Structure formats: C-alpha cells, structure tokens
C-alpha cells in the first residue's frame, strides 16, 4: 500500500496536467460545433467535393455527418485518442524503468518486499491515474454534448459505450509500453518512446484509412477501438478488439516475468 | 554461526565477468572487510546478495536462508548503503526516511531523529539541494533506521569529511556492539584496517585471499628505511626483500624473514638514520593488486 500511495503521489502533477488538457481540449473543440452547425449547408458542400478516402483518413464518414453533433464528436474523439494513447504509453514506459534510470532502484529493491508487490503497486497507481482522466473525459463529453447539441435529439447510449472503451484503449498502450521498457536495456527518454508509440500507431491508423487497407487495421489499437464503429453500431468491434486485448494480456504477463527476472543496472 | 555464506557465487553480464566462484563466510557479530580496486566485483557481489541482480550460478545464504528465494524476508534485517547514492530528488529528506521506514514493521521515528542528529543531517531540505556528502548521510540514516542485524556498506565513506567519517565509524562500531554483523566494502585500506576483524581481497571478480587483519599485520613484514652514503650497491637484493628502492643516500624495502641477515649487511655500512616500521596494509596488499 505504501508503494501505491507513493507512486500515486508522484503522479499527482501528471494527473493534473493530463486531466486538465485532455478534457479541456475536448470541450474547446466541441465548442465550435454550434457555429459549424449553423453553416451546415456550406460545409457539407465543401465536404462532398472532397475525396471520400481523404475524408476517411480524418475520420469523417458519410454515416456520421459532421453537421450532426455525434459526427462532430466522432471527429473530435478521433483526435483525443492520440493524447490518451501518449499518456498511457508514457506511464507504461516510465513506471518500471524510472527507478533504474534515476538510479533509485537500489533503494526500493533492497527493501523487504517482493518485486511482485512493486510491479502490482506501480501498475495499480498508473491505472488509477488513467481512470481519473477517463472519468474526467467522460464527464466533459456528456457536458459538451448536452451543452452544444442545440435542438438535436441525441441518444447517449452509444456515446457511453464508446467512453467505456477508453480505459481499455489506454491499458493497451500502457501494457505495450511496459513490456518494451522491461525488454530493452534502458529507456533513455520516456517521452521519445511514448510519443513514438502513440504517433506511430496513429499514423498507421490514418494511413490505413487513406489506402483502405484492412491489414493495417489489425496493427493499431486506434482501429481496434474505432470510434465511428461504436457510434454507428452501438457495440464494440469485438473481432478487432480481441487483438488489442490479447496483446495487452500477453504484454502484462510478459512484463511481469521479465521484471521479476531482470538484473537491475547500476552505475 | 555464519550470517553470510557464499557458495560459488558467479555472475556474468553476457560474456563480461562480474564475479566468479565467490566463496567466503561472514560470522555473526563480525565486521568483515571486502577490499578490492574499482571494478573488481565488489558491488556485483553485494548487489546479488540483495537480489538486485541474479547470479549466473552459485548462491548466497543470509541468516541461513537463500538470499533470492527468501529475498523479502531476509531483507527485513538488512541495512544497505549503496555505493552511489540516488534518491527521489524532489522529496524532502524526512519524507524519504519516512517512506523508507514504512517498509519495516516497526516505529523508526525515534531512531531517525537520533541518527540524523549524530550525522548532523538537516531533515527538512530537499534531496536535490544536498551535496554529495549530505546525500551519503541520508543513505547512512536510511540504512540504519530499522536497526538491522546485518549492515551491508558499499564504499560508505566516499564523500564524507574525516570528522563525519569518524562519527560514522563510531556509529558502525556501536551497532556492531549491539550485535549487528557488518560487511564493509572499500578500496581504502586504512579504514578497513581501522574497523574490520577479517578481510576478503577481491580482484578481477575473484577472491584472492581471506585474512585475519591482525595475523596479516603480524606476518613479519617490516618496512626498512636507511639513510647514509653510497648505499646503491645492490647489497640488499637478498631473499625476502621486496619493493627495493635504492638511491645513493636512501634505501627502502619491505622485508620478511630473519632480521639478522639485514643486521649483518648493515654492519658494513655508514648510516645516518634508520627507521623500521610496520608496513601499512596497503603495502601488503600491493602484492595482490599487482
């Protein structure tokens, strides 16, 4: 329990920053919807002139016209997923590597505790932080949709199903970060690694949209948790989701055993 | 009873040898010195006692239990001071010490106060603002606050001024009197000489010798220094003489054997001064280091 508390208090600043910026970004972006809805006709004309594949790359699809609030929300959420992925990767790369990088491992690991306890405590502390962000995000989503929908009648059910998938999405990125961090000798810069993983996956996802490649969709959690699919069908895309979940479970199990067996480097 | 038992402990980092076939025991209540030049494998040996690294083969037993298998249990009674001190920089000293204490099932607040008073440590400063020596003090308090039965000190004195060093030695001796066993690693021989009962010498990852400090010094080595005129004539190059340095006006060497032989040579010489000293451990150890 003491490690959990300690880790969580170390994450305070990070929770504050992500907790303000991600929901803030969503609220800010959604606030433009009323203005756009007002000029809906003109906007739709521009859109219809554009190549369908180009639009898909940006998450704009005919079933969810961005003149309607859910369509606009889909577009917004597609962008919000990127910082969510970066935050989660950031925790993943850092929680198990920070002691070694900052050379505090000799302090922590020489205490009368097992490595199992350390990894579980650290994991739970990071998970707690992610959930706090996800709850704040969910709250601001509901607020934004209600505040900006205008006269539209909106069924929130699909939105809630989408929001429920966010923790799982983040957990996938975090576990990939964790397994990479314990597989390599040293994570020299957490930021580089987490930006790389987050942006890399995002770009693969966009690229998959442009060239309409189903194969690329298998690669990236951004597609496994495709926001449009949930908003249209009201359910998760189970077959793609299964890939992410399997990767996550495998990564967590592998991280656990690799961390247990790891030789902790020192100066 | 043996508090620490090494059984052929070997650690390779890939192909690089960390330490090989380490075999020695540390008895209860002993202050055991662990001496070797930098990079000899001292830290590797020590860190495998704490399961920070896992041995390639062999094992360590502490308090009669395997140090890896029963790691958490064994570490309850170990106080460890790493050679390089790093702590969570943003924390205050007192918060770090309290965090450290929270891992042990006892109230350590009184002991923290006592120790930090002895070591003149300011508890309310941030760790990042501390000098190297002061960080070392944090490490010392952190290693002792739970009154461990076994103290593992990896080059503990670097960064401490001589006054603090003395205070620290007194602290160690006090803990030792209370029954704590101490493993003291160092590359500075005089401090080992001052504190330890026995000493293991490590070089290139292997234990060269385990010696009783007293018997070692009584090994009849003497350091001779003669001053006089025209001394550089090779007369002292006899069996038992090592480290012979001859100048016209001064000769020094280490000698082990029948001193009468030296006296005989001396009778034919014109000297102005003679010194015969106990050699320092350093000088004795030089043989191993070469």
Provide a quick synopsis of the model:
Chain A is 78% helix and 0% strand. With 267 residues, chain A is mainly alpha-helical. In chain B, strands 7-8-9-4-10-11 form a 6-stranded mixed beta sheet, with helices on both faces.
The gyration radius over C-alpha positions of chain B equals 23 Å
Output the structural class of chain A.
mainly alpha
Helix content of chain B: 25-40%
Q: Mind telling me the C-alpha Rg of chain A?
A: 20 Å
Strand content of chain B: 25-35%
Please describe the biggest sheet of chain B, giving its number of strands, its sense, and whether it closes into a barrel.
6 strands, mixed
Counting DSSP E segments of at least 2 residues, the number of strands of chain B comes to 15
CATH top level of the largest domain in chain B? Alpha Beta
Distance between the termini of chain A: 29 Å
Bulk shape of chain A:
elongated
State the low-pLDDT regions of chain B, or none: none
What does the average pLDDT of chain B come to? Answer: 88
Count of discrete structural domains of chain B: 2
Q: How many H/I helices of chain A?
A: 15
Low-confidence runs of at least 5 consecutive residues of chain A: none
Strand residue percentage of chain A: under 5%
**Which strand order do you get reading across the main beta sheet of chain B?**
7-8-9-4-10-11
- Structural class of the secondary structure composition of chain B? alpha/beta
Number of strands of chain A: 0
Indicate the CATH architecture of the largest domain in chain B.
3-Layer(aba) Sandwich
Whole-number tally of structural domains of chain A: 1
């Amino acid at each position: 329990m003491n490690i959990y508390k300690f880790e969580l208090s170390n994450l305070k600043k990070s929770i504050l920053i992500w907790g303000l910026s991600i929901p803030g970004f969503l609220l800010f972006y959604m606030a433009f919807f009323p203005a756009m809805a007002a000029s809906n006709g003109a906007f739709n004309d521009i859109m219809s002139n554009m190549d369908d594949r180009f639009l898909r790359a940006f998450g704009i699809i005919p079933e969810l016209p961005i003149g309607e609030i859910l369509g606009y929300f889909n577009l917004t959420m597609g962008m919000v997923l990127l910082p969510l992925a970066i935050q989660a990767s950031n925790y993943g790369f850092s929680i198990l590597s920070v002691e070694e990088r900052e050379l505090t491992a000799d302090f922590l690991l020489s205490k009368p505790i097992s490595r199992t306890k350390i990894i579980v405590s650290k994991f739970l502390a990071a998970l707690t932080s992610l959930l706090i962000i996800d709850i704040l995000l969910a709250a601001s989503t509901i607020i934004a949709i209600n505040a900006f929908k205008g006269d539209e009648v909106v069924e929130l059910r699909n939105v809630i199903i989408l929001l429920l998938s966010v923790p799982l999405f983040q957990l996938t990125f975090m576990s990939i970060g964790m397994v990479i961090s314990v597989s390599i000798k040293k994570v020299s810069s957490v930021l580089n690694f987490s930006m790389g993983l987050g942006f890399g996956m995002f770009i693969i996802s966009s690229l998959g949209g442009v060239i309409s490649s189903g194969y690329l969709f298998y690669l990236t959690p951004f597609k496994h948790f495709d926001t449009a699919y949930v908003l249209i069908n009201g359910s998760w895309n189970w077959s793609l989701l299964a890939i992410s979940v399997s990767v996550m479970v495998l990564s967590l199990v592998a991280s656990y055993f690799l961390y247990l067996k790891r030789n902790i480097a020192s100066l | 009873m043996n508090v620490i038992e090494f059984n052929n402990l070997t650690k390779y980092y890939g192909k690089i040898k960390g330490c090989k076939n380490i075999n020695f025991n540390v008895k209860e209540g002993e202050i055991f010195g662990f001496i070797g030049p930098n990079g000899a494998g001292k830290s590797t040996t020590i860190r495998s006692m704490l399961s920070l690294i896992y041995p390639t083969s062999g094992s360590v037993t502490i308090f009669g239990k395997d140090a890896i298998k029963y790691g958490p249990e064994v570490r309850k009674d170990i106080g460890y001071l790493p050679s390089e001190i790093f702590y969570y920089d943003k924390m205050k000293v007192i918060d770090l010490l309290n965090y450290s204490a929270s891992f042990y099932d006892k109230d350590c607040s009184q002991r923290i106060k006592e120790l930090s008073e002895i070591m003149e440590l300011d508890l309310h400063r941030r760790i990042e603002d501390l000098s190297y020596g002061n960080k070392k003090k944090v490490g010392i308090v952190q290693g002792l606050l739970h009154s461990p039965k076994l103290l593992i000190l990896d080059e503990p004195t670097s960064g401490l001024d001589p006054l603090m060093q003395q205070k620290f030695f007194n602290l160690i001796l006090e803990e030792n009197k209370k029954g704590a066993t101490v493993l003291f690693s160092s590359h500075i021989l005089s401090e080992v000489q001052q504190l330890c009962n026995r000493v293991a010498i490590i070089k290139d990852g292997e234990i060269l010798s385990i010696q009783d400090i007293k018997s070692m010094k009584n090994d009849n080595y003497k350091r001779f220094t003669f001053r006089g005129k025209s001394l550089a004539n090779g007369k002292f190059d006899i069996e038992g003489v090592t480290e012979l340095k001859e100048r016209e006006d001064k000769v020094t060497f280490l000698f082990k054997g029948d001193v009468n032989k030296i006296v005989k040579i001396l009778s034919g010489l014109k000297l102005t001064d003679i010194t015969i000293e106990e050699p320092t451990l350093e000088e004795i150890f030089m043989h191993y280091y070469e």
